[in-house]
Amino acid sequence: MKIPGLKIGDIETRLPIIQGGMGVGISMSSLASAVARSGGIGVIAAVLIGFKDPEFHKKPRETTFRVLYEEIKKAKEMASGGPIGVNIMVALEDYDEIVKISVEAGADIIISGAGLPLKLPSLVPEDSNTKLIPIVSSPRAVTIIARRWHEHFGRMPDGVVVEGPLAGGHLGFKPEDLDKPENKIENLIPKVVEAVKPLEDKAGRSIPVIAAGGIYTGQDIYNIMKLGASGVQMGTRFVATEECDASREFKEAYLKAKEEDVKIIISPVGLPGRAITGEFIEKVQEGQKRPKKCMFKCLKVCGYPNTPYCIGSALINAQRGNLKAGFVFCGHNVWRVDKIVPVAELMRELEEGFIKAAEKD
């Protein structure tokens, strides 16, 4: 028994695993290249990626552009030929520029969510080989995006990530819809696969559906792919790796987390998000946090000065290990994390778990 790979156009991987993009600074060139070397697709998160650079606080915008370009180039050099993607939130103020820079730097894939990426193809040259993959949370969203892309740009998605409510970070659901049975990833997959079929006919090629949210083991991957998904996107497991770009303190927050520590918060992006509760989040909920100024101008939808906190500063602080001044995004299963391992070891574990599940079935 062999685990199937993932095929997205002319990109083929040994394993059907995409490492989810995690910002700020959690998935950069170190993690992304390690995943690509190990048979998956590694993904860099573009948001505020230049935060470690000495120039960042003086010129956050220009520094982000430069460092993003450098990180993509670096990841590609270290990936041993494996594919490198970039996760770009639609909610970013500089979305257009960041997409263009990612393509110019040689990103193999752009994965885009936190809003519907309706104009994404217009930002990519027609002769570019960069694959475009929207993140959706419903079959309706797939149809809307595909119709817009086809009518306005003569293009179809190269794949679709469908993200369920157990994912980490920002979620594409209203808080009251997170627990509805129809939104469980296992119920969403068949509907999205069905919605993609007429798009494949129109495109004359396959459009793989990649499932995300709450996928933790090789058994989970097997179960998800039996429902029609071509692969999975996983985030939480990759934070607990040696190559992950987060600080040791950030990773240890995953190791220490208990099931009851995982909470749904409301982000300044206007979306619910899943995070590990702590001192910072408690103060936000008590109304004690207000941003003194908007330093980064990173989000279109931030709402400064009325936003409860600066998410950019909070996530930068968390990445650096200052959890009193920030918080840690996580997936539903973070409490199951009990060790930090090399990426190659994690990928082997997932592959072996898949094969065992397939042999038992």
From TrEMBL:
Leader sequence residues: none
SUPFAM superfamilies in the record: Inosine monophosphate dehydrogenase (IMPDH)
CDD domains: NPD_like
Key words of the record: Flavoprotein, FMN, Oxidoreductase
Alphabetized GO MF terms: nitronate monooxygenase activity
PANTHER family: 2-NITROPROPANE DIOXYGENASE
Name by which UniProt lists this protein: Enoyl-[acyl-carrier-protein] reductase
Protein source organism: Dissulfuribacter thermophilus
